[in-house]
Amino acid sequence: MTLKIIFWILLIILFYTYLGYLIVLFVLNVFKNNNHKEETPGEFLPGISILIPAYNEFDCLRAKIDNIKSLNYPADKLDIIWIIDGSDDGSYEYLKDHTDHTILHQRERAGKSAAINMGMQKVKEAYTIITDANTALNKEAVSNVIDCFKDSKTGCVAGEKRISQSNGNNTVSSGEGIYWRYESLIKKLESGLKTTIGGAGELLAIKTDLYREIDKDIINDDFFLSLMIIRQKYRIKYCPGAYATERPSADIKEEIRRKSRIAAGGVQIVFKLPEFLNMFKYGSYSLQYISHKVLRWTLAPLAFFIIPFINLCIVINNAFRVDIYLIVLIISILFILLTFIGFVAGGSRSYTKNLILPYYITMMNLSTLVGIARFLGRKQSSKWDKSKRMT
32-39 contacts: CB < 8 A, separation 24 or more? Predict the structure, then answer.
């Protein structure tokens, strides 16, 4: 009986984390109150600082500069600030000739959080957009972001992250693309109710006066910034009309390394800022935070790998009687089989086009466990490691 109770608790946690919460958001959006509208009337074209922290991104600099020039927003209202964080690839030497940009140089590598803190000291505009050097913003990104700030209660705007599929589908690009479309849907539904819970560092905008210095040991600087906005009782608006496109990880090992770092940073946030778990203080936001992030960073990956073993024990104790437990076990075995095929097939496009999900989901949960272990073992540095991307 005890095994069955544990089985159902873990299964409910797993279902709620990846599907149940999404269903709840759908239902709540159907019945949401659409009366809220508090916007600044008329044309709204304030000055904006675009902050670009970069570590060894020399190969991306020319494309990023061209991308900024292509933005559909008055160029005289854009203040571009680069922070070169201990790069040794010639990035600073290349950029210092661009006198129309502000170029800051941290000679010793201090990490992205320290780079952003340094850059924010030079920001003079009322709004700041933080974006990565290796991403491309769509032409309307800045104007769409600023439109969101017409609502006086919006303190932060989260752009959409997209994964480039220009090299065709393979294990990483297909899986990562599906994952971010799923994430985008959740953020859109959350934002439709009141606020989404955070934004991705590829494209994150804030009211400058709401900025709070990021602790230097913070791994997930973007999520920390988001929480600081919520702490000041402002909303985070999700803006799918503003997106940053990034190339996928070079291979599955690189994707595991990247996601394990994010997971380590997520667990760090849970321990460092426990106040956001307090529903009496933060209300529905705490519920969103727990549902969207905390469960993914803690119980869900554990449940994912433990359930099949508990399920097998129950089926054996039931002498393989045909019941719900046997059906779940058969589904689990098929899932594991597809995962194994995905592992063997590697980057085969014929396989990944239709059957990538089991393999990618397994790798994603494994990455989270690795991240938890790295955080608890104090092996995850806050300094960024440049991710290897497909060319």
Answer: 32/192, 32/193, 37/151, 38/151, 38/152, 38/153, 39/150, 39/151, 39/152
Across the strands, what pairs with 162? 245
Give me the domains of the chain, ranges plus CATH numbers: 1-29+41-391 (3.90.550.10)
**Rounded distance, CA 34 to CA 27, Å?**
14
Pairing relationship of beta strands 102-106 and 235-246 according to DSSP bridges: unpaired
Question: What is the model's pTM?
Answer: 0.89
Angle between helices 349-376 and 299-317 (to 10 degrees): 110
The answer to whether 94 and 207 are in contact (CB under 8 A) is no
* H-run or E-run covering 254: helix 252-272
Q: What is the residue type of 352?
A: T
Query: Which pLDDT score is estimated for 46?
Result: 95
Q: Mind listing the pLDDT tens digit for each residue in 46-71?
A: 999 999 999 999 999 999 999 999 99
